[in-house]
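Researcher: Please translate sequence to C-alpha cells.
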Amino acid sequence: MQKTDANYEKCLKVLKEELLPAMGCTEPIAISYCAAVARDTLGALPDRIVIEASGNIIKNVKSVIVPNTGNMKGIPAAAAAGVVAGDAEKKLEVISSVTKEQAAAIKEYLEKTEIDVQLSSSPYIFDIFITVYKNDSYAKVRIVNYHTNIVYIEKDGEILQSSVINCDMENGLTDRSFLSVELILDFANSVDISDIKDLLDIQIKYNMAIADEGLKNSYGANIGSVLLKHNENSLKLRAKAMAAAGSDARMSGCVMPVVINSGSGNQGITASVPVIVYAREMNVNEEKMYRALVLSNLIAIHQKTRIGRLSAYCGAINAGAAAGCGIAYLLDGSLDAISHTLVNALAIVSGVICDGAKASCAGKIAVAVDAGILGYEMYCENQQFFGGDGIVKKGAENTLVSVGRLGHDGMKETDIEILHIMIDK
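Model: Translation complete:
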C-alpha cells in the first residue's frame, strides 16, 4: 500500500482514534467524564445528580472498582469522582490526578448527596445522560455511542450543544467499513514506522507496565499469577499470564493508565501484550514488532466494527483472536496463516458472554489468548475449521460477518437477561 492510497491515511486515523490512553475501566470513566463536564457546565458542585444509563453501561460499571476512590464501585462512585475531582480536559484520564484529600471528599460527597441512577429506555447500546442540580439551576450532558462522544449539553433551558445521533455510526470517527484482513496485512507490511511509532511506544510502555504490576502485587483473583504458579512455564503461558495480569490490576482499581482498543482497556491489553511478549522472546527487531502490533490492533478493531462497542459478546475474544493473528505475523507473516488463525480462534470461543467489567475478565482474556495461539498452532499442523462448521463460513471476512451478526443481533436478548440476573430482577 502506498502512502498516497486513501486507505493508508484512513488506517492511520482509525489507529489514532482507537489507541487512546485511559485510566480505569472505560465505562465508569465515561460516567466520571460526563459528570465532570456537567459540573463545569453548571458552574458549581451539584447538590443532586440524576443519571440515566443504558443497560450495558450499568452492567459494565456495577462490579468494577473506580480508581482513586478508596476501592468504591458503581455508578454513584464514578459520578461523584467526576464532579468532585474530575478534570474534564483529560477525558478518559479524567480522575487520574485525584489527591488524597479529594478522595476523602469524594466519599463524604457520596454520603451526603442524592445520586439517583435510572435504567434508560434509550435505543442506544451506549448512552449516558447526566443531569446535575444546584438549587434552582441545572445542567444536562449526554454521551452516546462511544466514551467521549458528547452529543448534548444544556443549562437552565438553553441548549449549548446538540448533535444528530445515528445508531449505526459513531459521530466524528472514521468509517471502518473499508477494513479487511487482507487490507490490514497490506497496511501492516507497508506502513512507514515513523507514522505509528509514537502511538505504539505508548501502548507498549503502558500496557506492559500494568501487566508487570498485575504480576507483582495482589489484584482481583490474580489470574496471571495463578497461571504461572500452576502450569509448566512456556512462552504461550507467559503471553496469557501477562495479558491476564494487566486486567487483574485494571479491574481492581490500579491507577496506572493503559492504551485502549475499541473503547476497552482490556481489549487494548489483550491485543498488544501477548504480541509484545512473543516478539521479545523471539528477539525480532523493533520494526517487525511494530508491524505485528499494527496488524493485531486493526484486526481487533475490524471485528468490533460489526459487533459494536458494547454487547453480550465478550470483546476479549476478538482481541485474543487478533493477538493470535499478531503472533502468526511474527512467526509466519502470510495472509493464509493470519486468516486461518482468526477463523480457527473465533470458531473455538465465540459466544463467551460479557457480564460486565470485573475480576473474571482476566480469566476470559487468558482463554481468548489461548484460543488465538491455538488457532495458529492448528494452521501449522494443516488443521482448520471449515465453512459450515457451526457459524464458520468460507473465508475470514465471511466468518467475521457471522460473528458480527451473533454479537450485534443474536445476543440482544442474552444481554437483557444478563442485566436482569445482575440486578436480581
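Researcher: Any highlights?
Model: The domain at 181-422 is CATH 1.10.4100 (2-methylcitrate dehydratase PrpD).
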